[in-house]
Each structure stands twice: as C-alpha cells, then as structure tokens.
Amino acid sequence: MGSIKLIRTAKTGYLVLAALFCIMGIAMLVLSDITPDMIGWGAGAIIAAFGIVRIIGHYSRDPYGLAFQHDPVLGVLAVALGSVLIFRRSLAVNVLALVLGVELLADNLFKVQTAMEARRFGLGTWWLMLALALVAVIAGILLIVFPFEGMRAWVRVIGISLMTQGVMSFCVGLCAIHIPPQRTLDIAA
C-alpha cells in the first residue's frame, strides 16, 4: 500500500515539475524583462525539486521500472546543479547555459535508452518518448556548444530548452510511470 502512495507521489511530482519547466520556458520566451538572476533561481529550484522527485521515484518500486531506473544518480546530479543555480546565482549567470545543457544532455540521453526499453517492453508510446528525447538532446547540445551573443537570444534558447525538457518529462511521466490499481480486500463479516 505504501508503495502505491509513493508511486503516485512520484508521478504527480514528476508531472507538476514537468509542467513548471514548460511554464518557465514559455515565460522566458514571452517576458522581455526576465533577468538572469530570476532564471537561475527559477531553473535551479525546479531542477533541484525534480532531483528529489526522481530519487523518491526510484525507491517507489514502479512496476514498469522505466521512468526512474537511472534516477538515483541523475537525481543527485539534478539536486547538485539546481543548488548551484540557487545559491551561487552570481556564478550561475556565467554558467547557466552550460549547467542546463549538461542536465538536459545527461537526462535525455538516458531517456533515449528508456524509450528503447519501453519499445521492448511493449509500450505503444515509445516512439513519442524517443522523438522528444532526441529533440531535448539537441537542445542540450546547443546550450553547451554554442555561446549565444546577446541576452535575448540566450534567454530564448534556454526557454526553448526548458520547454523541451518539460514536454519530454511530461510524456515520460504519463506514459512510463505505471500506478497499479489498488486491490480491495473482501472481508467477510
């Protein structure tokens, strides 16, 4: 019983934080007065919280075992990188794109593997997870490899990358985290 609650908590947290990635990405594309300090704090908080959810998810004993299989390591990495963005915001402005790029690249390379395992497992949505993971991998590479001249271009690329990560994570949360039905016990009185 406790395991089902833990799976439900992990799945809900996963979906909420994926939605927050999307919202933050959209905000970065729409708002013209967003500062690097705000980006560092917001992205750091979401990434660190996602790391905690991932660690919880790993220990939830999800029956499919797909979404959280690599998450103890990636969860700790996310908490560490998120903490850097929150507590060292002055440093974060200089390395924000690199930190986000490393997080996106590492996470989504494992999601490519998860999608392939979902295919072998028989999930019909494996192709969607694979396509979204590959787009997110490209976004991570762009953040790492190409330094963007000008603040506006930098903010937009990070916004698009966060939206990509959010959509990918939302898809994985919906398709690859299975909550088994609760069984009721018939007690004869």
What can you see in these coordinates?
By secondary structure, this protein is an all-alpha fold. The chain has one domain. The protein is built from six helices and no strands.
Could you give a short account of the major beta sheet? none
**Integer average pLDDT:** 79
As for the number of domains, it is 1
**Number of discrete helical segments:** 6
If you compute it from the alpha carbons, what radius of gyration comes out, rounded to the nearest whole angstrom? 17 Å
Write down how many β-strands occur, each being a DSSP E stretch of 2 or more residues.
Answer: 0
Instruction: Identify the overall geometry.
Output: globular
Helix vs. strand class: mainly alpha
Helix content: over 70%
Query: What is the N-to-C order of secondary-structure elements (H for helix, E for strand)?
Result: HHHHHH
**First-last Cα distance:** 22 Å
- Uncertain regions spanning at least 5 consecutive residues: 184-189
Q: How much of the sequence is in beta strands?
A: under 5%
Task: Give a short synopsis of this structure.
This protein has 189 residues and is an all-alpha fold. The protein is 78% helix and 0% strand.
